[in-house]
Design brief:
- The protein has 252 residues and is an alpha/beta fold.
- Helices cover 30% and strands 15% of the residues.
- The chain contains seven helices and nine strands; from the N terminus they run βαβαβαβαβαβββαβα.
- It is globular, with a radius of gyration of 17 Å.
- The relative contact order is 0.22.
């Protein structure tokens, strides 16, 4: 299992803006972040790239060239805890290998459905990732009452990066601001997770461009209070490990 590097202790609040699955409408988020000079982490399902409603390889190239991080999210987005170990490893390693073959530096992973166990954590490390993000282990108005209000830097387990529940269409702008201001009381790491970016309530896991722009604009002003925005890779640090090649996926 690869050993993730040790990051420096937090003296501020660090927010990471993460986007799961690689939907085509996330290009709107890229434009918003670029406008405000902030960088995000985009966790990509490699097997979906170039299919309808998803980003293309050219999109990924543009995202990376703008300074955003490309991360891995498997080949087909399965619940890894339900797969045999060799199949789970193929999903994790092949996803990273494919993204790497397109020229990207791939160090960060997100568990599909936030489903993981000790065995899956080990596989993520064996495939060369430095970290993996979960969901639902940081307190917000939408879940995990009594949980910590931010994660530590470095995380106690880099393959279990804690985050609030992912954003859905029941979150308000105030909810988003509150989870940040609450984290600011202690400092630490606050990864936030988004999926679809659309103005027609296209999915339960969606946020409008207006709300995202308003939140990002507000978030940038928090720098006066010591709150900064970093990609997951910037927080974790460390090298990009060699690509680990797995045998072809059983389902192609």
């Amino acid at each position: 299992m690869a050993t993730a590097p040790t990051a420096h202790s937090a003296t501020t609040t660090v927010v990471s803006l993460t986007f799961d699955d690689g939907y085509a409408d996330q290009m709107s988020a890229v434009s918003i972040l670029n406008e405000h000079g902030l960088k995000g982490t985009f966790y990509i399902i490699s097997g979906s790239i170039g299919t309808p409603d998803y980003l293309t390889e050219a999109d990924l190239q543009g995202i990376a060239e703008s300074g955003h991080e490309i991360g891995g999210h498997t080949v087909t987005h399965p619940d890894l805890t339900t797969l045999p170990a060799d199949e789970a490893k193929r999903e994790i390693c092949t996803g990273r290998a494919t993204l790497s073959s397109w020229g990207h530096r791939i160090t960060s992973f997100a568990y599909p459905y936030s489903a993981y166990n000790a065995e899956v954590e080990q596989l993520v490390g064996q495939c060369g990732y430095n970290s993996a993000r979960t969901l639902g282990d940081i307190a917000s108005s939408h879940g995990c009452t009594g949980c910590p209000t931010a994660g530590t830097i470095p995380p106690a387990d880099p393959y279990n990066i804690r985050a609030p529940d992912d954003h859905d269409n029941t979150w308000t702008l105030q909810d988003m601001q509150d989870v940040v201001t609450t984290a600011e009381r202690t400092g630490g790491w606050l990864p936030l997770t988004f999926h679809r970016i659309c103005d027609d309530n296209c999915d339960r896991l969606s946020i409008s461009t207006t709300m995202l722009n308003s939140f990002v604009s507000w978030l940038k002003t928090r720098s006066t209070r010591g709150t900064v925005v970093k990609t997951v890779d910037q927080v974790i640090g460390g090298p990009a490990h060699p690509v680990v090649t797995a045998s072809p996926l059983a389902h192609g």
